[in-house]
Design goal:
The complex is a heterodimer of chains A (162) and B (748). Chain A has 162 residues and is α+β, with helices and mostly antiparallel strands. Chain A contains five helices and five strands; from the N terminus they run E-E-H-E-E-E-H-H-H-H. Helix content of chain B is 32%, strand content 25%. The N terminus of chain B is likely disordered. Chain B folds into three domains: 214 residues, 2-Layer Sandwich (Aldehyde Oxidoreductase, domain 4), CATH 3.30.365; 161 residues, Aldehyde Oxidoreductase, domain 4 (2-Layer Sandwich); 347 residues, Aldehyde oxidase/xanthine dehydrogenase, molybdopterin binding domain (Aldehyde Oxidoreductase, domain 4, 2-Layer Sandwich), CATH 3.30.365.10. Classes of the chains: A alpha+beta (162), B alpha+beta (748).
């Protein structure tokens, strides 16, 4: 433990936003901190550290995942997507809808909101109000932008997609 | 660089210059601020010298307009609102407008506080005139420059959407083409401001300037500051309020990977490591012995018992109109109730953090702060550096709500960086953030009303007990408010009591915010405050004391209405005959909500009205209560009068956000004290409102041509009493303690 030297650890391979990285980190390091501190991908936020608020949501093999309670060893070799790498028609539609609705206030939770919404639209292209509430209620926004988020998701869902 | 100085009116100087690479610069130097904060020598050198440090507007040769913003963007939309004010007068092309956070300069001080700081919903009202003048002056210079280029009279030229048009010929020049010439033009003595009817942007739903980076994960918050060689520190604070460090065994922590140093600091112990996770794991391995001191037995229950006793005594009379005691004796009926409010945490989504780099010759601080002046001052105090060697860089803030007006985390970062001689980012864990918050004070209120035979209140007596939110803040603010040229040793010696804001903060009035201004026309009114500080750290929390007093006064108004068999709306309107702004919003909210019509089956309504400072807002809440006692808020209708509206979208967002913030304190969590510490530590035991709990919100803005007043805090105070009054309508149970618990309302 205390004798563990940096060089003695095994390198961990992470696939983030379609790039492959080899990181020399403690395998128990939460994915959140590897993304932020090792890869400089600061769009994913730390807020609660216990998987309670959703500010740190990223996609792991397409699934919305709380990166603050997911260790790097758990996601070895899996496809990780962060807000910086969110692409494709759903991602674009969401970001456009967010901008059109001027959704963010302080903005700190919005990456987590958008990543969670992207997973929802991938599985349910035209969600109802209650389906949106069910999918999104685990992502906290202290500024209370919830109504604007719901509207933006509807707008994104209504946008014609190829 | 060329420059001219314009004496524009008595109060201020506007300065104009051109800097190669930067373009046209229009800056301000407020005489009032200069007089209190600068030596005569430094003011004079500024007036003739470098213009860039205190600019308001810059226009580049590319025609890009930069508006410098002296207020922190916390989510309240201030970058957009202030830029709109300047851009309106400037006749700018909104797509070419960008903002830049101000550096440190006395010209950027907030006149409401005497230092550069954001709070009290003062940003728009204090910048309104100055930014309009700066925009208008810049516009006049550009028009003059165009007229001179074309050799035509200036009156034939008009500025519009980022260019000057020569109306007879239709020729145009972009602002960027005019900047060099404009800097040399004499500014007219009188700078005409636009009439309200001519506004193109103010009052319109202009797109916000910070939306895009916040949607793409690109906005830089304090947490996101990156520097070469940056270390991260995690702080362990004493478990008990007021505790002190006795001894540390850091043997294990120091041997853990990435750990650089373990540093005892004034507020606890810092573990400094290469990475956050390493610092966090190592701080969990510390063995610390604390001197718990005298607060180790403090609890919410002991505080409550003490306040119930103190409430039997006389407090400081903040307001005393007529003769309350005699009127109570004459009253046909006396109503009395006790209301209690708990401590509340801010729960800023971005936990407290600060990055500092202390060097021998200066210090840079990167911080999400509402208090640049205080940050600079404490940095200078910790390092011994002169103020002008301390640079404060303001990042975006992931929430502020008043918490970031304190500078405890700045002191920590500077202390740690000084000790390790490297740039350090102090990051509080969520647990530290909630446990060591500077809470919204708890308070204990006794209210009494005397009613005449018709049910009209003739006496109103409100006594409250609790700490004052300003006490914690003012100690760090006070030295920053004093003149910059005063040596620090003298600042500490000078009695800060002479400074108006300090005087206000120390007075009973600051804790009475929203209660002293109770507008109901009752002939005999007394407000008493018994200040008692149990030793739980307190601070400003969105809407400060208003969130407490509005709940008490507006809930009790409903009790008075019930006792006198009057309609809750009609009684208020009767007592607000002389307060037109208040009765207007109240009437509007009632009308728009359909107050006089029956609500849907199972839905009940409650109403309230409260003014945060000069901005009254009324709310009607529609709720239902299920058998388990769970309160669901379906719809909130709000009417607000904030004077001239800069951007209705921002007003709506602030009201809606204030409702969400206030509902969290109404329906969800609170901070309770046991064994001298906060029981809550994270969002599992201090829950926030969720999407499925957010009501529909309708905001109705009362049209006004008056100067703009604040909006950021206005939405918080009225929501708790509106909901509590609706709960009474639904269940017949009075809510006199927050948060509302389903246990109290359950019928099964």
């Amino acid at each position: 433990m205390s004798m563990q030297k940096r060089g003695a650890r095994k390198m961990i391979e992470l696939k983030v936003n379609k790039k492959t990285y080899r990181l020399d980190v403690d395998p128990e390091t939460p994915l959140l901190w590897a993304l932020r501190e090792e890869l400089g991908l600061n769009g994913t936020k730390y807020s609660c550290g216990i998987g309670e608020c959703g500010a740190c949501v990223v996609h792991v093999d397409g699934e919305a995942t709380r990166s603050c309670v997911t260790t790097v060893s758990e996601v070895k070799g899996k496809e990780i997507t962060t807000i910086e790498g969110l692409a494709g028609s759903i991602g674009e539609a969401l970001q456009e809808a967010w901008i059109e609705g001027d959704v963010p206030q302080c903005g700190y939770c919005q990456s987590g909101q958008i990543m969670t919404a992207a997973e929802l639209l991938a599985s349910n292209p035209r969600p109802s109000d209650s389906e949106i509430d069910a999918a999104m209620s685990g992502v906290l926004c202290r500024c209370g932008t919830y109504n604007e988020i719901r509207q933006a998701i509807h707008r994104a869902a209504g946008r014609p997609r190829p | 660089m060329s420059g001219t100085q314009v004496n524009e009116g008595r109060r201020q100087f506007l300065q104009v210059g051109f800097i190669a690479g930067a373009g046209l610069i229009v800056g301000g130097l407020s005489k009032q601020v200069a007089a209190s904060s600068e030596t005569p020598q430094s003011s004079a050198s500024k007036a003739s010298g470098n213009l860039a440090p205190n600019a308001w507007i810059r226009i580049a040769k590319s025609s890009e307009v930069t508006v410098v913003i002296n207020h922190s963007e916390l989510g309240q939309g201030i970058f957009t609102a202030l830029a709109m004010i300047a851009a309106e007068e400037l006749e700018a092309d909104w797509s070419k407008v960008r903002t830049e956070m101000a550096s440190m300069d006395p010209v950027y001080a907030n006149p409401a506080f005497g230092v550069q700081a954001t709070g009290g919903s003062t940003s728009v009202s204090t910048c309104w005139e100055e930014l309009r003048k700066a925009g208008a002056a810049t516009r006049e210079l550009l028009v003059a420059a165009a007229a001179s280029t074309w050799k035509v009279p200036a009156r034939e030229c008009r500025a519009e959407s980022g260019k000057v048009v020569h109306q007879p010929s239709g020729r145009t020049l972009l602002y960027g083409q005019l900047v060099e010439k404009a800097a040399g033009m004499p500014v007219p003595d009188k700078i005409p401001l636009k009439k309200q009817g001519d506004f193109n942007m103010i009052g319109k739903r202009m797109p916000k300037l910070d939306t895009k980076p916040k949607t793409q994960g690109k906005a830089v918050f304090g947490m996101d500051v990156q520097l070469k060689g940056l270390l991260t520190a995690v702080i362990t604070h004493p478990p008990v309020f007021g505790g002190r460090l006795k001894s540390i065994d850091a043997t294990k922590a120091k041997s853990m990977p990435g750990v650089r140093k373990v540093v005892p600091i004034s507020t606890g112990v810092a573990v400094v490591a290469d990475r956050f996770w390493q610092a966090k794991k190592a701080s969990e391995a510390l063995r610390i012995e604390w001197d718990l001191r005298e607060k180790a037995n403090l609890s919410s229950e002991s505080i409550r018992a003490r306040w119930a006793e103190l409430a039997k005594q006389r407090g400081v009379r903040v307001r005393d109109v007529g003769d309350v005691e005699t009127a109570m004796k004459k009253a046909a009926k006396v109503v009395e109730a006790v209301y209690e409010l708990p401590f509340q945490a801010h729960g800023c989504p971005e936990p407290m953090n600060c990055t500092a780099h202390v060097r021998d010759d200066g210090c840079d601080v990167w911080v999400p702060t509402q208090n640049q002046g205080g940050s600079q001052e404490v940095t200078a105090a910790v390092t011994g550096l002169d103020l002008d060697r301390v640079r404060v860089h303001t990042t975006f803030s992931g929430g502020g709500f008043g918490r970031r007006g304190d500078v405890d985390f700045v002191i920590e970062a500077v202390e740690v960086s000084k000790a390790v001689k490297a740039p350090v980012k102090v990051v509080w864990t969520r647990e530290e953030d909630i446990r060591h918050d500077h809470f919204r004070p708890a308070s204990y209120h006794v209210v009494r009303a005397g009613l005449d035979a018709t049910g009209k209140p003739i006496a109103f007596h409100h006594l409250f007990v609790g700490p004052s939110y300003m006490d914690g803040i003012i100690d760090t603010l006070a030295p920053a408010i004093m003149p910059r040229w005063l040596p620090r040793s003298l600042k500490n010696a000078v009695s800060s009591a002479a400074i108006p804001i300090v005087k206000y903060a120390r007075s009973a009035e600051s804790a009475s915010g929203g209660a002293a201004a109770m507008p109901y026309a009752v002939d005999n009114v007394r407000l008493e405050y018994f200040k008692d500080d149990p030793g739980v750290p307190v601070g400003a929390w969105r809407s400060v004391a208003n969130s407490q007093h509005a709940f008490v006064v507006e809930s009790f108004m409903d009790e008075i209405a019930s006792a006198g068999a009057k309609d809750a709306l009609q009684l208020r309107l009767d007592l607000l005959k002389n307060s037109q702004k208040w009765s207007n919003v109240l009437r509007t909210a009632a009308e728009k909500s359909g107050w006089d019509r029956k609500p849907p089956e199972g839905v009940y309504r409650g109403i309230s009205v409260h003014a945060f400072d000069a901005t009254p807002a009324a709310m009607v809440a529609e709720i239902s209560v299920d058998k388990a006692g769970l309160v669901k808020v379906h719809r909130v209708v709000c009417a607000v009068d904030c004077g001239t509206v800069i951007n209705p979208k921002i007003v709506e967002a602030q009201i809606s956000g204030g409702i969400a913030f206030g509902l969290t304190a109404t329906l969800k969590g609170s901070v309770t004290i046991a064994k001298g510490r906060a029981r809550q530590a994270n969002f599992d035991d201090f829950p926030l409102l969720r999407m499925d709990e957010m009501p529909r919100v309708e905001v109705h803005i009362v049209p006004s041509e008056a100067a703009p007043t604040g909006i950021g805090e206005v939405g918080v105070p009225p929501i708790a009493p509106a909901v509590a009054n609706a709960v009474y309508a639904a269940t017949g149970k009075r809510i006199r303690r927050l948060p509302i618990t389903s246990r109290d309302l359950a019928t099964v």
